[in-house]
Amino acid sequence: MQHIKKLSELSATAICGNDITSSCLYVSALTIIYAGQYAWLALLIVSGVLFLFRKIYGEVVGALPLNGGAYNVLLNTTSKSNAAVAACLTILSYMTTAVISASEGMHYLHGIFPSVPVLLATAVLITLFLLLVISGISESAIVAVVIFVLHILAMLLLIGSGIWFVLANGLGVAKINFGMPMKGGFATALFLGFSTAMLGISGFESSANFVEEQKQGVFRKNAPQHVDCRFCDQSADGAYCCRGIAPF
């Protein structure tokens, strides 16, 4: 019998954590657009929602430790049609995330090297990751860990630079930002900011899609605790630091 190599806590966390940690880099900015100076509060509310949801998520997948995520849960609790709809929406969500992420990355690269064609480079990048996934989850997990570490270092660099700027220049920019008027009032800004911030939590649920490939006990560690808490802390800290160093 062939021995199947199971994923460690770091590898499993990296696979689903890349989506979340990359979301930190754009969700904070989008939340600031709608919530303004109260973006940090909207992000903290999202972190509270995730904190309440993590135990439910862990118990449900722990009771049905099979690959499939939402599809598997609905298949065992409702009808096949509902499960099929959930599966289709999940696939569309992942495809959209992959295309948007690749396109945004190539747009950044095009800004540095104008000779790079965005559309062609996006197709090549998606194809490379397609071949990587086909090679096996263990092999792709190694690349995922490298990307995950780079994401964490980028967030730490962002937070550290923000703290350094505030210590060196004071809270003048932050005071100006928090004194800016808001359209629609506090409640509207908080509601729109919360709705926008919820877009960035996609990815933590993907751990349930490969739970059978994880070592015993790894899922309960990486999915409900490490990944979403890391997203919340980095997003909130990043948004707060940015408000202290960048004017509206």
TrEMBL record:
- Membrane topology summary: Multi-pass membrane protein
Q: Which residues form a coiled coil?
A: none
| Transmembrane domains' residue ranges | 32-53, 83-102, 108-134, 141-166, 186-211
Where in or outside the cell it occurs: the entry states:
Membrane
Give the keywords, sorted: Membrane, Transmembrane, Transmembrane helix
Instruction: Please indicate which superkingdom the organism of origin belongs to.
Output: Bacteria
**Primary localization class, coarse:** membrane
**GO MF annotations in UniProt:** amino acid transmembrane transporter activity
An example GO CC term for this entry is:
membrane
The cross-references to Pfam families, in alphabetical order and at most eight, read: AA_permease_2
Q: Which PANTHER family match?
A: AMINO ACID PERMEASE_ SLC12A DOMAIN-CONTAINING PROTEIN, INNER MEMBRANE TRANSPORTER YGJI-RELATED
Q: What is this protein called?
A: Amino acid permease
